[in-house]
Design brief:
By secondary structure, the chain is α/β, with parallel strands linked by helices. Among the domains are: about 1-125, no CATH class; about 265-320, no CATH class; about 345-545, Uracil-DNA Glycosylase, subunit E (3-Layer(aba) Sandwich), CATH 3.40.470. It contains 17 helices and 15 strands. The strands form 4 sheets. The protein has a 5-stranded mixed sheet, covered by helices on one side. The chain has a 5-stranded mixed sheet with strand order 10-9-13-15-14, with helices on both faces. Strand 7 (about 240-245) and strand 8 (about 250-255) form a beta hairpin. It is globular. The structure holds iron/sulfur cluster.
Length: about 550
């Protein structure tokens, strides 16, 4: 029997080294005992540290990648299970991952999927709290786990990123004590100023977040938060492992206790306001909402406090939307960039609103790099709606709010669109809505992100996704909202005034229909023109719906 003791729960290099050595030595999976820190069998022979035996060892790259993800799963048998796959691949089963019915492959795939889902939740639901630093950017305090430091963790000689969240935690000798967290009524401004800060200029404040992942995902995810919040000094505390960023170095310490978080949340009010602003009562689906934002995360989400009230008031707000006699478009809000993100390799936010092939498409699109728009944007915003929708609406691109929430048509134009749908007698739950371009194109201007029209190259690059959506749904009618959408749907430059409000034949008995984009209505400066154009827009929607009758 061979005992392998890994350094940490996510010691992938150690596992990989040991798996290679064991396979070359001919140690069968049933003769290997895997553990973390402490050997499970005191009488088992330890794995020698000597160089691995000579020989040829090669396993498919896909298996190595899968193992790197699955090893983060909270499953005591994962090391052994992964070694079984390595053993089989080493003994000739090079294509074992292609056998979707193989029980061991299935189990590892399930573990990896659970890790990916957890990763997505962490990136979406980590909420930083400000710990105001009254002493400037002086020396950082000692690690939060100093009291339990057994020398085993990998904090280097430098101090970690964020210090104690409140008095009572440990301060480095000679360091100016930090004030208790300060409730900041202008949380949005604060976060916006962080987002607008030039690279390299650190925030004078420090930020701490508490998160309870299902799996051991902190180390693998920390670089994402470094990229995202490079100019903040932050700590993410979890029960298993804590990550700290001081603007220069990323360090890790052992797990922490939730009591180390400050009670006050300077940014809570901001999150509540933001969530309320993107909540659309006409589209309330409690099941989908709780699947996207599971209740177990609510206790750490400041915006969760707003949910019961929003649900309670949803019906009356919807009634008001329908009864509102004249158009009063919502004002463009100054929404700062906020730390809500979706990773490129995880389930997109729209997945809860999709089924069948669309989920796979949306997941694939979440990792799209076909044009440069993905980089500054928060996430891919895929379409959403039923897979058998007969009516598809195509807009231009996600806006600021859509980019942050990961869902199409939820901002001011989306809300106006919803209202027009209701007036035209179209149930939004039965239609599919998407955009020609799936990433938000913008120009930073101070604290705001200003919409920039996508160019032909981007529309063409992204057309693969729109065509894939159309191929999967096969809508009888595709309504293009605005010139960009018309170009994407029809494949040519379109003048709205010339082609508006009439059916246009597409391949396969399908039809297209062109009208204006709701954001055009919001931009009209004159109230009379707004009311007139809005009425014409509603009439177009009625006309489009009648083509399906
Ligand atoms: S805008 Fe479209 S093509 Fe460009 S990266 Fe995003 S999804 Fe891909």
């Amino acid at each position: 029997m061979r005992s392998i003791v890994l350094d940490t729960e996510t010691d992938f290099p150690g596992w990989r080294r040991a798996a290679r050595a064991l396979a070359l030595e001919g140690v069968a999976p049933e003769d290997a005992l895997w553990s973390v820190s402490e050997p499970t069998d005191l009488f088992a022979a330890p794995t020698p540290d000597a160089s691995p035996p000579a020989g040829t060892f090669s396993v498919p790259r896909a298996l190595v990648d899968l193992a790197e993800t699955a090893i983060q799963a909270r499953d005591a048998e994962r090391f052994a299970l992964l070694y079984r796959l390595v053993w089989r691949a080493h003994h000739g089963e090079k294509h074992l991952l292609e056998d979707a019915a193989d029980p061991q492959v299935q189990r590892v795939q399930r573990l990896a999927q659970a890790v990916r889902r957890d990763t997505h939740k962490m990136r979406a639901f980590v909420r930083f709290r400000e710990v105001r630093d009254t002493g400037g950017l002086g020396p950082s305090p000692a690690p939060v786990d100093d009291a339990t430091d057994d020398g085993a963790h990998d904090t280097d000689a430098r101090t970690p990123a964020a210090g104690p969240a409140r008095p009572g935690l440990h301060e480095a000798p000679g360091h100016t004590p930090r004030a208790a967290p300060v409730a900041d009524p202008a949380g949005a401004d604060l976060l916006a100023s962080i987002a607008a800060r030039p690279a390299g200029e650190l925030s004078p404040a420090r930020y701490v977040a508490w998160f309870e992942p299902d799996h051991f995902i902190v180390e693998a995810n920390a670089p994402f938060f470094v990229r995202r919040f490079a100019t903040m000094q932050w700590s993410i505390l979890t029960p298993d492992r804590c990550a700290h960023w001081d603007g220069e170095a990323l360090t890790f310490t052992p797990g922490a206790d939730r009591s180390q978080l400050p009670d006050d949340d300077a940014l809570a009010e901001y999150w509540r306001a933001y969530f309320s602003s993107i909540f659309n009562p006409a589209r309330l689906k409690i099941g989908a909402m709780t699947s996207e934002m599971p209740r177990k995360y609510w206790k750490n989400l400041p915006e969760a406090a707003a949910i019961p009230g929003l649900i309670r008031d949803a019906q009356s707000r919807t009634d008001q939307m329908v009864e509102r006699p004249t158009i009063s478009p919502p004002k463009e809000r100054k929404m700062p960039k906020v730390p809500a993100t979706a990773p490129a390799d995880a389930l997109p936010a729209t997945a809860a609103h999709l089924s069948g092939d669309l989920v796979a498409l949306a997941t694939e699109a979440a990792a799209c790099r076909r044009c440069p728009l993905w980089e500054p944007a928060t996430q891919t915003v895929f379409g959403e709606g039923p897979a058998d929708a007969r009516l598809m609406f195509v807009g231009e691109q996600p806006g600021d709010q859509e980019d942050l929430a990961g869902r199409p048509f939820i901002g001011p134009a989306g809300q106006l669109f919803d209202r027009a749908l209701v007036e035209a007698g179209i149930d939004r739950a039965t239609v599919y809505v998407t955009n020609s371009v799936k990433h938000f194109k913008f120009e930073p201007r101070g604290r705001r992100r200003i919409h920039v029209k996508p160019g032909a190259t981007e529309i063409n690059a992204c057309n693969v996704w729109l065509q894939a959506e159309r191929a999967a749904i096969k809508p009888a009618l595709t309504v293009a909202l605005g010139a960009t959408a018309a170009r994407a749907v029809l494949g040519r430059t379109v003048t709205i005034g010339r082609e508006r409000s009439r059916p246009i034949a597409l391949d396969g008995n399908a039809q297209a229909f062109v009208t204006v984009h709701p954001s055009y209505l919001l931009r009209l400066p004159d109230e009379d023109a707004k009311a007139r154009e809005y009425a014409a827009f509603v009439e177009d929607l009625r006309h489009a719906a009648s083509l399906l009758a």
